[in-house]
């Protein structure tokens, strides 16, 4: 891993335009744009009002900078392995498109998922599993606390010689329970399975070391913990996909596509590595500068320090809420809970949607997911936000 600055961060609320009196603990739904990203968007719109002087290389340069920043964030030594995608579903569709070409794929193999995974990571496999006669194996979440160690053990046990693909997130999108990705990746390589990760609810706020995890695919939407705009994401594709089939045949993904005067000399060869998987119109002249600004801030803040800040911010709240009959997963390294996204299981008598509405009435924003509230703080939060959360829940519960 690159050098990490462990100097504690103070609140960065002054870098955001969130109104006073609003307690936004909901970054897992959508991150607020920072002032830096907001200004980058305004500047990009101003540039677009006059496209005079736009050069061919300008269609590619923004994505090049974003690839480098994202690679630095995840410790990826090769930015050419990063593709520009519009969504997680797009990235996972690329995996599904190429699964029939996976060496050794055969009928009767399994695709391993964890229970209650985000829909984009489930729907992606319906068609290909039927076409190849594969079975979806879903690893259930334990009923009792702590859930993380047992869930991780069950996951590793589910990966065997008959596994074609393993799809696991760094943290569960509803509950914040962590999965030991290094152990999962090692097991997947041992049995010859592809290893795909939806990093949307972790990368940017939780340290991620690609060289240690060694996934075949990592896909991240940009509008949550990457702090960027909606409908723009990033995906890493490893060597297994170097000669794969893209979803679309975009002209920018071919060799010499920056030579506009020769575009009619149709080029059969793709640009190297992950470039063939770029979405069409990948330049995103307005959104790309916003994502670049957001990533530059994250590289400066560093996920390790974001974890430390959110831990310090919330650690006193959990014992107080547990006294009300709530439950949280304990901290237990790579098999416990994260600090930036925490599932708070409510008492059985509580209606999660009613509790969420009571919080919203007091301008406290969280998400209700199944029987839990999803608490998702970031650097723009202060102790006053957590105090407001605890106060409302104390009154309601």
TrEMBL record:
Gene Ontology molecular functions: transaminase activity
Recorded coiled-coil stretches: none
Highest taxon above the source species: Bacteria
Pfam family, one: Aminotran_5
Residue ranges annotated for the Aminotransferase class V domain, each copy included: 63-388
Keyword entries, A-Z: Aminotransferase, Pyridoxal phosphate, Transferase
Name this polypeptide is given: Aminotransferase class V-fold PLP-dependent enzyme
Organism annotation: Spirosoma liriopis
């Amino acid at each position: 891993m690159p050098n990490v600055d462990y100097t504690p961060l103070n609140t960065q609320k002054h870098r955001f335009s969130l109104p006073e009196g609003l307690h936004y603990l909901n970054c897992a739904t959508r991150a607020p744009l920072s002032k830096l990203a907001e200004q980058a968007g305004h500047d990009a719109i101003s540039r677009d009002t006059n496209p005079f002087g736009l050069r061919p290389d300008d269609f590619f340069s923004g994505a090049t900078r974003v690839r480098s920043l994202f690679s630095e964030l995840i410790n990826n030594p090769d930015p050419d392995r990063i593709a520009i995608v519009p969504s997680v579903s797009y990235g996972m569709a690329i995996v599904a498109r190429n699964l029939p070409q996976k060496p050794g794929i055969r009928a009767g193999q399994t695709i391993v998922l964890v229970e209650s995974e985000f829909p984009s990571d489930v729907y992606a496999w319906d068609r290909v599993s039927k076409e190849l006669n594969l079975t979806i194996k879903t690893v259930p979440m334990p009923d009792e606390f702590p859930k993380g160690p047992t869930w991780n053990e069950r996951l590793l046990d589910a990966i065997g010689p008959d596994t074609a693909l393993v799809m696991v997130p760094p943290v569960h999108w509803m509950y914040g329970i962590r999965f030991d990705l290094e152990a999962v990746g090692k097991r997947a390589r041992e049995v010859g399975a592809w290893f795909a990760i939806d990093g949307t609810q972790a990368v940017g706020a939780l340290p991620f070391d690609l060289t240690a995890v060694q996934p075949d695919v990592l896909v991240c939407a940009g509008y949550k913990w990457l702090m960027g705009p909606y409908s723009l994401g990033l995906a890493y594709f490893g060597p297994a996909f170097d000669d794969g089939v893209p979803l679309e045949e975009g002209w920018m993904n071919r060799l010499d596509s920056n030579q506009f005067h020769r575009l009619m000399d149709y080029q059969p060869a793709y640009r190297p590595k992950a470039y063939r998987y770029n979405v069409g119109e990948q330049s995103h002249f307005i959104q790309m500068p916003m994502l670049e600004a957001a990533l530059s801030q994250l590289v400066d803040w560093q996920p390790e320090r974001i974890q430390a800040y959110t831990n310090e911010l919330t650690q006193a709240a959990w014992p107080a809420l547990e006294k009300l009959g709530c439950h949280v997963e304990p901290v237990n390294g790579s098999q416990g809970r994260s600090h930036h996204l925490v599932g708070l299981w409510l008492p059985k008598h509580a209606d999660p949607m009613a509790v969420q509405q009571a919080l919203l009435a007091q301008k406290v924003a969280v998400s209700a997911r199944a029987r839990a509230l999803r608490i998702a703080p970031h650097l723009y939060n202060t102790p006053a936000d957590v105090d407001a959360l605890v106060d409302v829940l104390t009154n309601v519960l």
